[in-house]
Amino acid sequence: MKQGLIVFLNGTSSSGKTSISMELKNQKEIPFHHLSIDDFFRNYFDFINNKFPDIEPTKEVDNIGQIIFDPIVSVYYATIKLFSEMGLNVIVDTVIDNDKRFNDYLDVLFDYPTLFVGVICSKEELTRREQIRGDREIGLANSQYDKIYSFNEYDLEVNTEELSPTECAEKILSFIMSDQYYSAFKKLSKREISVS
After folding, report:
1. Helices H, strands E: what count in the chain?
2. Of 49, 20, 16, which Cα lies nearest the Cα of 32?
């Protein structure tokens, strides 16, 4: 059985990844499964809050990222791999905002068929969207911008200021159905991680 296609939407918070994902998921030509890192974190915190509603920490924890975030991200990457192994097409909706997570993603998914899509949006528009949404810290997307858009090559780019989510999804679908070769992800290499 053939591995499922991974459509990796690379963009900052508020760039339009989830809206494009929903359009891809809802179309009928190619079946897709949407895997969002937000869902993994939300489900974990819902579990903790429901299972232990009265929990009171007895001390402050400084390294929550290493204790909780990194393992949840690892489970997320493994789930993407599992879906592809099962022959399911996957839309990856995440922000890989540091070199360690980027390297971990490459380690797990480098050999899997991946369409690397740049979801492009200006800093000014990102700020405007954050203000309208009200559920994101203002400036979060701009703080991610340089790291997220540091890649030199994508298989395809969609500009969410110029195209609606539906038009972006149609552009991605047209690219997939054209049987064009996608290789940008295979050209990526691990990043050097600075030790502090």
Report:
1. 8, 5
2. 20
